[in-house]
Amino acid sequence: MSAVEDGTVRRSFDLGRLGEAGVRAILDGLRSVGEEVRDAAFDPATGLLTVELTGAQAVPEVERFVAGMRRTLRFVNRKVLKENRAERLVPGPIDEELRACGDLQILGEGLTGLRGRMLALFRFFEREVKAIADGFGAEDNHYPVMIPNALLAEMGYFGHFPQHVTFCCHLPDSLPVLEAVAAESKQPALHGLPRLDGLLDPPQHVLTPGVCLPCYVQQRDRVLAPGEVRTLTMQNHVFRYEANNFRPLARGWDFTVRDIVFFGAREDVERLRGEVMERAFAFCRELDLEATLELANDPFFLDASRDKAVYQRMGEVKYELLVHLPQRPEPLAVSSFNLHRDYYTAIYNTRLADGGLAESACMGFGLDRWLYGFLSQKGLDPADWPERVRAAVA
Q1: Do 227 and 326 fall within a single domain?
Q2: For the segment 203-215, what is each residue's pLDDT rounded down to a tens digit?
Q3: Nearest to residue 333, comparing CAs of 321, 341, 350, 351?
Q4: Reported pTM
Q5: 59 and 196 share one domain
């Protein structure tokens, strides 16, 4: 452990025996450890992970986290199903170029707005992914961005991913409180923002951390017909808090996802997942994107659920489509393809015609990330884009 003049503490860890997927998982997890983690970088040449912390008090927690992840991830190996090499890359300082282009507006940490050409390109990906869903005969659904806490609790979400949840709350129905807040907001020193500590009602809702979550409730006590596969699709804003790791389009607090969800017998949902993966990878080839389709796992960082990462990989229940970023050492997951087995259908009693539990699978397409991955490889100049894309956004 070493310290520098500004109080930053550096701690190094030997991850040389971990595979690429294990290193990525630890890097992702460190972003949820706390604001004390200022930076983390892995050197493939030495196998060393160097973590910068705001002070020595954070070192024990980071050491405990890395040790626990290392114990779990020693069983994790990389498995690549497919790989596509781009014929032409146009690398550049994409983050700086996006900030300067005028078509991207950063409203706050993890909050990005689009206009002009960037919005037109976003709409292109929106249409293409919807076309994939339509190709499977998916029924389109629309849900609110706010859902009850009780829904997440029912699904066990707080037990696995509490770090992502954004709670919604409001002022109480009390005229004296409302008048006091309004009066305080007029004080010049507060710049229109009153102090709310201790005034807000306990939150009863969250901003949804997953587009598909309400659709499982819709299937409560449903019995599928013999041979039926129920196919739904939905697009919405998704909200996941990522501590100090926000990056415009690549990792947002508020981002847009379209999901395709299948309900049916195991062999049917597994087959359909494979077909969606093929279609998504074909789309990468059509756009000449450098990408891989790889075995993956959800970010289980808490001690109580960390071993689930190994179980997911053993069962091959999650694959991700990763797009190469020429400017960065790690790729970007733009889509995921997940088998839930009977997790949700057991909660909501969704059954097959023979009385057995149905199974579900969810295919997620992060539209902001597709946009970012494309621009990272092809640049901002439409002259460098494939003709199909140029024609669509003209």
Answers
A1: yes
A2: 999 999 999 999 9
A3: 321
A4: 0.82
A5: no
